[in-house]
Write a structure and sequence with these properties.
The protein is of the alpha/beta class and about 475 residues long. Helix content is about 45%, strand content about 10%. The protein binds flavin-adenine dinucleotide (FAD).
C-alpha cells in the first residue's frame, strides 16, 4: 500500500455507499483527506442550497471521522487558482467523481492536463448517473433528442452492463490534516440569508435518503403512476434534493426498485430516465445552458414586466394553484412536479416572461436545483427545448387546479387566506362574490391577467415566430 496521501475532491457526493472516489482512495492510501471547495460565487444565486450544503458538510464530516478521514472546507474564489496552488505540492494522489454539468466536465479536462504536466497521479470516476452520457447514442452516432427512444436504449444499455461489485470505503490508518486555510461549515451557515426554516421539512443525510427510498417503495410506489400528479398528497419520493447532493446514488435507487415487481416501478424509473436524458441533452447541446435549445425562440417577443414577475415570485397572481406552488417553493425549498409545470407555464405563457427569469428564480430557491433538470424542465415548459411541450398547449390554471387538487387541500395549505372558500370556488375565488368569506382585492388579489385574453395573446406571440 502506498504511503502517500489520497486527496478526495467532494462536490455533490456526500455519501459513503457507491462513492468510488472515496472508496478507491481509502483502499490505496494510509491517509486520506477529503476536501470541499466553498466558492461563494457559486452559491450567490443558489441561496437555498447553501443550507443543504452546510448541513451535509457537518453531517458528513462526522461520518468520515469514524473512517479516520478529515473533511476540510476551503473557501476560494476560483477552482482554477486553488488547483494551481495545489499543483505545487507533490506528495498526493487526487480522486474525484464526475459532475455532469458542461462547466465541470470542461474543468476536468483542464485538471487532467495539468495534473499530467505536473506528474501528479489522479483518478476520475463515474458520478451520480446510471450511464455515462456519451455511452448512449443513436446507431448513427448522433445524440437522442427524443426521450422515449433515448430511455429505451439507455435502460437496455444499463441492464446489459455487468454490475460492478461495489467497492466499499475502508478505514484509514490515521487521520491527518492537509490544507492550511480551512473554514468550518458554521461559517457557511452564518452566511445563509433565508428567513424560512427548512429544518421543518428536511433533514439532509445519507441515512435519511435511504429511509425515504425504503418508505417510498413500501408505501407509495404502487400508486405512483396516478399519485405523482396530485400535489395535495405525498405521492412522489421527494428524493430530489438527496439525489442532487449525492446522498443517494441513482444506481442504489434502481437496484432497490427492481427488486419489487409492481407495475408502476417502470413509470418511476422512467423519471430517473428523464434525469439521465436531461444530463445527456445539456452536455451534447451546451448552448441550451445559456439560451434556447431551439433557435427559433431567440426571436420570441418576451415582455419585461417586473410587476408581474414579482407577483409570480411572491405567490400573489390571483390564481390559487400558481400561488400555492410559489409559496411552497419559498417556504420549503421544493415544489411538486405538476405544480412546477403549472407555475412555469403561467410565467411564460400567461405573463409572456422569458423562461430564463423563472429558471434563475428556481435556481435560487430549490434545494434540488440541478442545472440539467432545471434548464431542461424550463425549456420543456416554454416549448423551446428538445422533446418539449408545444408552446401552443397552454395550461389553464383553473382546470389544472380542479383536476389535480380537486378539494383544494393543497391550495388551502399554502394559501391560508383561502381556507374558508368553498370547494366550488377554490380555484376561481373571484367568482365567489361573498365578502363575508373573502374580499377579493384585499384578502387575496384579483387575477393579474384574465386567462382567455392571456391565452390568445400568447398564441399570437407564438405565431409571430
Ligand atoms: C420547470 C421545472 C424545473 C425543474 N427543476 C428541477 C431541478 O432543478 N432539479 C430537479 O431535480 N428536478 C427538477 N425538475 C423535475 C421535477 O420536478 C423534480 O425532479 C421532482 O419534482 C422531484 O420530486 P421527487 O423527488 O419527489 O420526484 P419523483 O417523482 O419521486 O422522481 C424521482 C426522481 O426522478 C427525477 N425526476 C422526476 N421527475 C423528473 C423530471 N420531470 N425531469 C427530470 N428528472 C425528474 C428526480 O431526480 C426525482 O428525484 C423540474 C421540473 C420542471 C417542470
Amino acid at each position: 500500500m502506498a504511503q502517500n496521501i489520497g486527496l478526495v475532491w467532494l462536490k455533490d457526493d456526500f455519501r459513503l455507499k457507491k462513492n468510488l472516489a472515496l472508496a478507491h482512495a481509502s483502499k490505496n492510501h494510509d491517509h486520506v483527506v477529503a476536501f470541499f471547495l466553498y466558492k461563494k460565487r457559486k452559491f450567490i444565486d443558489q441561496e437555498a442550497q447553501k443550507w443543504w450544503v452546510s448541513k451535509s458538510l457537518k453531517e458528513f464530516k462526522m461520518k468520515l471521522n469514524s473512517y479516520n478521514i478529515n473533511l476540510e472546507i476551503i473557501k476560494t474564489d476560483s477552482y482554477k487558482s486553488f488547483f494551481e496552488n495545489l499543483f505545487e505540492k507533490r506528495n498526493f494522489c487526487i480522486y474525484w467523481n464526475k459532475t455532469y454539468e458542461p462547466k465541470y466536465l470542461q474543468f476536468d479536462k483542464f485538471l487532467i492536463k495539468n495534473l499530467k504536466n505536473n506528474r501528479i497521479k489522479f483518478n476520475l470516476f463515474k458520478g451520480n448517473i446510471l450511464n455515462e452520457y456519451e455511452e448512449i447514442k443513436k446507431s448513427d452516432g448522433t445524440p437522442f433528442k427524443v426521450f422515449t427512444p433515448f430511455w429505451r436504449n439507455a435502460e437496455k444499455f444499463y441492464l446489459e452492463k455487468i454490475p460492478a461489485k461495489e467497492k466499499k470505503l475502508s478505514k484509514c490508518r490515521k487521520k491527518i490534516s492537509f490544507f492550511k486555510k480551512i473554514i468550518s461549515e458554521n461559517e457557511i451557515q452564518s452566511e445563509i440569508n433565508w428567513d424560512k426554516k427548512f429544518e421543518k421539512y428536511w433533514d439532509p443525510s445519507e441515512e435519511n435518503a435511504n429511509k425515504e427510498l425504503k418508505s417510498f417503495i413500501k408505501d407509495k410506489i404502487e400508486n405512483y403512476s396516478e399519485a405523482r400528479n396530485l400535489p395535495n398528497i405525498s405521492g412522489t419520493s421527494k428524493l430530489s434534493p438527496f439525489i442532487k447532493h449525492g446522498q443517494i446514488h441513482v444506481e442504489t435507487i434502481w437496484e432497490e426498485c427492481i427488486k419489487i415487481k409492481k407495475s408502476s416501478v417502470g413509470k418511476f424509473l422512467a423519471e430517473i430516465g428523464w434525469r439521465e436524458f436531461n444530463h445527456s441533452l445539456i452536455n451534447y447541446f451546451p448552448h441550451m445552458v445559456k439560451g434556447n435549445y431551439s433557435k427559433k425562440f431567440d426571436k420570441f417577443p418576451w415582455e419585461k414586466n417586473s410587476k408581474y414577475l414579482n407577483a409570480w415570485k411572491k405567490g400573489l397572481t390571483g390564481y390559487p394553484i400558481v400561488d400555492a406552488g410559489m409559496r411552497e417553493l419559498y417556504a420549503s425549498g421544493w415544489m411538486h412536479n405538476r405544480v412546477r409545470m403549472i407555475v412555469g407555464s403561467f410565467l411564460v405563457k400567461h405573463l409572456l416572461i422569458n423562461w430564463t427569469e423563472g429558471e434563475s428564480y428556481f435556481k435560487n430557491c430549490l434545494l434540488d436545483y440541478n442545472e440539467a433538470n432545471n434548464i431542461s424542465g424550463w425549456q420543456w415548459v416554454a416549448g423551446s427545448g428538445a422533446d418539449a411541450a408545444p408552446y401552443f398547449r397552454i395550461f389553464n390554471p383553473i382546470l389544472q387546479g380542479e383536476k389535480f387538487d380537486k378539494n383544494g387541500d393543497y391550495v388551502k395549505k399554502w394559501v391560508p387566506e383561502l381556507k374558508n372558500v368553498p370547494k366550488k370556488f377554490i380555484h376561481k375565488p373571484w367568482e365567489l362574490n361573498d365578502i363575508n368569506i373573502l374580499k377579493i382585492g384585499s384578502d387575496y388579489p384579483e387575477p393579474i391577467v384574465i386567462h382567455e385574453k392571456a391565452r390568445s395573446k400568447a398564441l399570437n406571440a407564438f405565431k409571430s415566430i
